[in-house]
């Protein structure tokens, strides 16, 4: 289901928008009338996302941007400002997963995940905030993760990075509030995206992994990228005008549940 929001006249920048949650969000914002900037390191898929949006009647441009490189982030944000003269929504979504425990994670592997998932979020949100601060309005969104709270031993660097995104989001929300800029995080899981499919492949039986990840959720399934996009549009819209510094789950109820095996009382 897509709730109707009107982003006509708004400029929306989304990192990691060449696939998964970012691409679905780019399509949804464009369908709601926004001028969308698709930022990603993957030029081929990023161009394709922008072309698909244009073919559907929307406005989208691809801009190559490696979120770990501040010069590229500055160039990308500069291109948006040169093109549209404004940034109304910046969705700092780019990220990579990680499936190794602390003991076997090499320092360079750790730095790479933290560089993309946490420092990348810092660099893009910082440049977007500087642009929005002059305009004294805007919305900044992050894609965090429930792994910032509850994780697994194998998800070491990812869990640390996503917990860090929560801290970054809260600090920026406080700094941005006097300028009328709202800052929030989405905590999705598990969402059917190329990244999730790649992780399922590691299990040796990807279809079984997808089924299991769905079955443990109270709603009994994994989520769709469009369902995360719906939350992004809500948080960016005036309907969320009093929401800032918040983390919103879109996880099929998983975080509400105690781990299996903790039930002590038989239902009456
Ligand atoms: N899929 C899930 O279940 C899930 C759950 C929780 C959080 N997330 C988070 O959601 C976000 C999107 O994930 P997804 O599942 O859509 O993954 P995805 O792999 O489908 O998309 C991620 C995108 O980020 C891009 N990217 C990677 N490194 C980059 C860099 N240095 N600079 C710019 N772009 C870069 C990739 O090219 C890709 O297009 C990530 O931050 C991820 O951690 C996903």
Automatic annotation (TrEMBL):
PROSITE patterns, alphabetized: ADH_SHORT
GO molecular function: oxidoreductase activity
Domain of life: Bacteria
Any Pfam family the entry gives: adh_short_C2
Endpoints of the signal sequence: none
InterPro entries registered for this protein in UniProt: NAD(P)-bd_dom_sf, Sc_DH/Rdtase_CS, SDR_fam
CDD domains, sorted: SDR_c
Keywords attached to this entry: Oxidoreductase
Family: Belongs to the short-chain dehydrogenases/reductases (SDR) family.
Protein name according to UniProt: NAD(P)-dependent dehydrogenase (Short-subunit alcohol dehydrogenase family)
Organism phylogeny: Bacteria, Bacillati, Actinomycetota, Actinomycetes, Streptosporangiales
């Amino acid at each position: 289901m897509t709730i109707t929001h009107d982003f006509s006249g708004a400029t929306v920048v989304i990192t990691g928008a060449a696939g998964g949650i970012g691409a679905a969000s780019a399509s949804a914002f464009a369908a709601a009338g926004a001028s969308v900037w698709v930022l990603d390191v993957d030029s081929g898929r990023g161009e394709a996302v922008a072309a698909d949006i244009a073919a559907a009647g929307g406005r989208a441009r691809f801009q190559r941007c490696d979120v770990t490189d501040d010069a590229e982030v500055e160039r990308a944000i500069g291109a948006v400002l040169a093109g549209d003269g404004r940034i109304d929504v910046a969705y700092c979504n780019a990220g990579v997963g990680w499936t190794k425990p602390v003991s076997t994670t090499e320092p360079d592997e750790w730095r790479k995940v933290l560089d993309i998932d946490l420092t990348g979020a810092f660099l893009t949100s910082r440049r977007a905030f500087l642009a929005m601060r002059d305009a004294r309005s805007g919305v900044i969104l992050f894609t965090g993760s429930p792994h910032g709270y509850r994780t697994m031993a194998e998800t070491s660097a990812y869990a640390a990075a996503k917990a860090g995104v929560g801290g970054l989001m809260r600090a920026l929300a406080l700094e941005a509030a006097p300028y009328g800029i709202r800052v929030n995080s989405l905590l999705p899981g598990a969402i059917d995206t190329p990244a999730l499919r790649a992780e399922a492949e590691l299990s040796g039986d990807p279809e079984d992994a997808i089924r299991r990840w769905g079955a443990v959720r109270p709603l009994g399934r994994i989520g769709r990228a469009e369902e995360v996009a719906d939350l992004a549009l809500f948080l960016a819209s005036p309907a969320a005008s009093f929401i800032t510094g918040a983390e919103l789950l879109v996880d099929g109820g998983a975080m509400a549940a105690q781990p299996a095996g903790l039930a002590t009382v038989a239902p009456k």
